[in-house]
Amino acid sequence: MAFGIGAAATSIWAVTAFAPITRGPAIPHHVAVLSEAPDPAPSGTLGLSGLRSFGDFYGLSILSPSPGTIGPRSSRCLIVMKTADYQDSASDVRGPVNFSCSAGRFPATVVMSVEADAPTELRAIFRTGTALQFVLDGSRVGVFTDR
User: Superkingdom of this entry's organism (predicted)?
Assistant: First the structure.
């Protein structure tokens, strides 16, 4: 059997200029490193299993569930929420929950703004409108601001 191509192959080239996309502040301000607490969060917290706690950050609870609990099987996830909005033994939360899961080489990263309804302790340190970024890095969480 013989195969042939009836039309000549052509190539089309285009030149396009792309403006670079910035990833945020040129130099984000690193404000804290939160270490994993020696004791895990109580079983059943938020209805999740295997929650690791990174403690309280000025009225915010920082948690990370077992891989695959709330995201893809191999991803690590990070949860940031007001400590006052949940109880250790409860599976529900009375306020917003911010979370993110890793994807490939990108770590779980939660970004949020300090707003008027933020915990008093947080607003005492960071003024309203300050952006906070929480980045999961193994057994620790880096905290950054845009100011």
Answer: Bacteria
Q: What gap in Å lies between CA 78 and CA 63, rounded to an integer?
A: 6
Residue 3 lies in a domain: no
- The token pair that represents 142 in the structure block: 């880096």
pLDDT, tens digit, 9 for 90 and up, residues 78-101: 999 998 887 655 566 788 889 999
Q: Say how many domains are in the chain.
A: 1
Residue 78 CB neighbours (<10 A) = 24
Query: For residue 17, is it within any domain?
Result: no
Beta bridge partners of 53: 63
Q: Which residues pair with 101 in a beta bridge?
A: 77
Q: Which residues pair with 80 in a beta bridge?
A: 62, 98
Quote the CA–CA distance of 95 and 130 in Å, as a whole number. Answer: 20
Whether the CB-CB separation of 91 and 47 falls below 8 Å is answered with yes
Q: Which helix (H) or strand (E) holds 124?
A: helix 120-125
Is 97 inside any structural domain?
A: yes
